[in-house]
Amino acid sequence: MESNENKELVLLKYGGNAMLNDKLTQQILHKVIELSAHGYHVVLVHGGGPFIKENLARAGIESEFAGGHRKTTPEAMKYIEMALKGDVNSRLVRILNELGGRAVGLSGKDGKIARANKRFFTNESGDQIDIGQVGDVVDMDTSLIRILLKNNYFPVITSVAYSEEGIDYNVNADMFAGFLAGKLKANHFVLLTDVDGLMKDPEDPNSLMQSLRLQELKALMGTTITGGMIPKTEACKVALELGAESAIITNGTKPDYLTEVIQNKEYPLATKIKH
């Protein structure tokens, strides 16, 4: 029997359309319980864009974007945190507990897990645009997470961070997860998305790139890697550079294969990236 300290660690980034489907959510979280039963530690990180949008609309706050980032006023931040921590996080914790787990809901502010600095968006003219309380993670303290894992809890963490100046920041959940995976030296950083992985041709599902090295990933930025894959592959890059063993991009709408994608190195429906 493997000791608790020597268990392999999986950091799972959960998001995308799978989050909107209650049945898929149940299936994915059941796989989290199954991974634990197979002897893995699991940390779950999530965002919640659709829930944020709904909450802001309910509050009469219009969503405005700059360079793909949601401008976040102090008023908007209040409702963003309400959606992430009060709605999405508490729902995931409840379901995991119903399935027999012992889940603990956190944000990056709890235990000073995630410290962030203000992020600015630079437009095509080179001007810096203030996008409010949007942040980039600059440091993480994993001690609270390690205590929870040692005692067989499931940390469920949403991507809100703090600053030394006492300001809360909304952080891109992919980048938050990648940073944390690196700091935890995760054996497997798994990003769930809406496709099977990274495609040479996004229009051709048969062009899946099953295996990549980190240096190959860098060369694909801006050509093969575009749109929504940019933050996901950037998160993989950050995770690997900070100490994660491998990064996997796979399809969150096919939860039946989640354990196989982690256990089987030759699993076909995923992109695995290593050093």
Number of domains: 1
Radius of gyration: 18 Å
Number of helices: 8
Q: Could you name the CATH class?
A: Alpha Beta
Strand order of the largest sheet: 5-8-2-1-11-13-14-12
Q: What proportion of the residues is helical, as a percent range?
A: 25-40%
CATH architecture label name: 3-Layer(aba) Sandwich
Enumerate the spans where pLDDT stays under 50 for 5 or more consecutive residues. none
**CATH overall fold name:** Carbamate kinase
Helix-and-strand structural type: alpha/beta
Q: How many strands appear in the DSSP assignment?
A: 14
Strand content: 25-35%
Question: What does the average pLDDT come to?
Answer: 92
Shape category? globular
Strand-and-helix sequence, N→C? EHEHEEHEEEHEEEHEEHHEHE
Major β-sheet profile? 8 strands, mixed
Terminal Cα separation, in Å? Answer: 29 Å
- Going by CATH, what is the homologous superfamily? Acetylglutamate kinase-like
Description of the structure:
With 275 residues, this protein is an alpha/beta fold. The protein has a single domain, classed as Acetylglutamate kinase-like (Carbamate kinase), CATH 3.40.1160. Helices cover 35% and strands 28% of the residues. An eight-stranded mixed sheet has the order 5-8-2-1-11-13-14-12, sandwiched between helices. Strand 6 and strand 7 form a beta hairpin. The radius of gyration is 18 Å and the shape is globular. The two termini are 29 Å apart. The model has no long low-confidence stretch (mean pLDDT 92).
